[in-house]
Amino acid sequence: MSLQEIYLWFTENQKEVVARQGWQKSIRHNLSMNTAFSPPDSVGKKRKRGLWRLDPAAVVNGGVPPTSQGRNSR
């Protein structure tokens, strides 16, 4: 999913979030810090910036852990 698609979802579904200043920076920060999200695998290719995927284990385990649990160790 592209970062723009994530922003669009927030603008359509989370009006109280997008009303605050800096909401896009907050989303980028949380995507990079949360172990449930990662850039798609790009073996042998340049990594495409702005693309993210949800780890299937996060869905199986019942959701996305909060970013307060620690820094992503990629």
UniProtKB/TrEMBL annotation:
Residues 54-74 are annotated as: Disordered. SUPFAM superfamilies: Winged helix' DNA-binding domain (SSF46785). Gene3D superfamilies: Winged helix-like DNA-binding domain superfamily/Winged helix DNA-binding domain. GO terms for molecular function: DNA-binding transcription factor activity; sequence-specific DNA binding. Residues 1-74 bind DNA. This is Fork-head domain-containing protein. Its main location: nucleus. It holds the Pfam family Forkhead. It comes from the Eukaryota. One of its GO terms (cellular component) is nucleus. Keywords: DNA-binding, Nucleus. Residues 1-74 form the Fork-head domain. It comes from Dactylonectria macrodidyma. It is found in: Nucleus.
